[in-house]
Amino acid sequence: MIDKRADDLARAFEGLGDGISVMIGGFGDAGRPAYLLKALLDSGIKDLHFISNNAGDGDTGLGAFYHAGRVRKLSCSFPRGSVAPLMEKLIRAGEFELEVMPQGTLAERIRAAGAGIPAFFTPTSYGTLIAEGKETRDFDGRGHVLETALHADVALIHAEQADRFGNLTFRHLARNFSPLMASAAKRTIVEADHVVELGDIDAHNVHSPAIFTDLVYQCHDVPEDSWHDWRASA
Amino acid sequence: MTPLSRNGIAARVALDIQDGWHVNLGIGMPEMVANYLPEGREILLHSENGILGMGPSPAEEDVDWTLINAGKKPVTALPGASYFDHAWSFGIIRGRHLELCVLGGYQVAPNGDLANWARDANDPLPAIGGAMDLAAGAQRIFVMMTHNDKSGAPKLLESCSFPLTGAGIVKKVYTDLCVIDVADNRFTVTDMVEGLTREELQNRTGAPLHFADQVAVLKDPA
């Protein structure tokens, strides 16, 4: 029997320790896995390498990890938002590393990791600072830049529906990076608004197939003030 | 002389978008172009975060925070819209399927170079987002920006001093003073606001200007 449903959040990060890389689905707040992020915060794991399009905002969700000093590195495309001044301070103190890349390159590096492609050439960033030091090659008279696959230990994903096999659907544009990240991580952990029976998600409508999913949790709201536990521990 | 308003620039850009085009409007000022798409033209708007057929912002009671544009603002999906993941969305961009992308700009040069993501190569927090993929992938790039920066310095220059977003990719520039064709390594003015002399426009520009045989008059929409 295949049943990826779980209740105990301690299982989510079992066997994992400091220094892991974590992909976080979502674009802005659309598809952001708040329930699992809170579980990661509560796990105490530190020296995290986050892979996420956005840096986060405020002192909840992703933002709480910077305040709590738990992130060592962020790979992203758009490090703006209200955490930017804090990130800048951490960078200057040598406590934090930022890797910024074009959004399509971030997406394709993740897709490549899940699809068994170790590297690829993209026209994006050719002739810019981002291409400096990277291998380039002309195809059909145009310059291209070699980029490598981006793997992770864990992916945290917010789905609208999940069944016990781990088939997923996403609401509107909450899909974004999530199916790619689900395929690229060694352990893909899903929180779902609705955990449904097999067959409730019609095979035509599966957005991320079961094979990429490892654990499925019923999602719960995270009270705003519960994020602030880092203040007590900081 | 009255410079165009931001809405005026957006309306002028929209006039050049053809029926049937698939268009990405960059974050910031280019988003305003959506409000001026000419009647009678069917134009599908694409957003990097996975939609083709994006519609206007919803009424407050209809806001769904899983339906937002690349600037994280609530939008709607028009009948005939489609959703897709980020790999596919950037496949649409890099695969040269979009007829047009309109981007904001810090600097543009006559060779078509565009700088719009960092004002300093040592910026500790450079924000690229989707701009470099759009610059490399759209069939044509229009840039929409003020003619001069807040200190009055020109943004149209012999060469970009800020880090490039893309090299040799800009086809047209729309400012609050004029419209410029970028081709053959030169700036050619095709439209100008009323009451501005060619000499004054040149003085506010950091690279030599050429002028089309017929220069149209630019005006804010009534």
Automatic annotation (TrEMBL), chain A:
InterPro entries: 3-oxoacid_CoA-transf_A (IPR012792), CoA_trans_fam_I (IPR004165), CoA_transf_BS (IPR004163), NagB/RpiA_transferase-like (IPR037171)
SMART domains: CoA_trans
Gene3D superfamilies xref list: Glutaconate Coenzyme A-transferase (3.40.1080.10)
GO molecular function: CoA-transferase activity
Keywords in alphabetical order: Transferase
Keyword Mitochondrion: no
Key word Phosphoprotein present: no
Pfam families on file: CoA_trans
Similarity field: Belongs to the 3-oxoacid CoA-transferase subunit A family.
Protein name: 3-oxoadipate CoA-transferase alpha subunit
Organism of derivation: Pseudooceanicola nitratireducens
Automatic annotation (TrEMBL), chain B:
Origin superkingdom: Bacteria
Keyword Hydrolase: no
Any GO molecular function: CoA-transferase activity
Keywords attached to this entry: Transferase
Gene3D superfamilies in the cross-refs: Glutaconate Coenzyme A-transferase
Entries under InterPro entries matching the protein: 3-oxoacid_CoA-transf_B, CoA_trans_fam_I, CoA_transf_AS, NagB/RpiA_transferase-like
NCBIfam families: pcaJ_scoB_fam
Family per similarity comment: Belongs to the 3-oxoacid CoA-transferase subunit B family.
Protein name, per record: 3-oxoadipate CoA-transferase beta subunit
Species in which this protein is naturally found: Pseudooceanicola nitratireducens
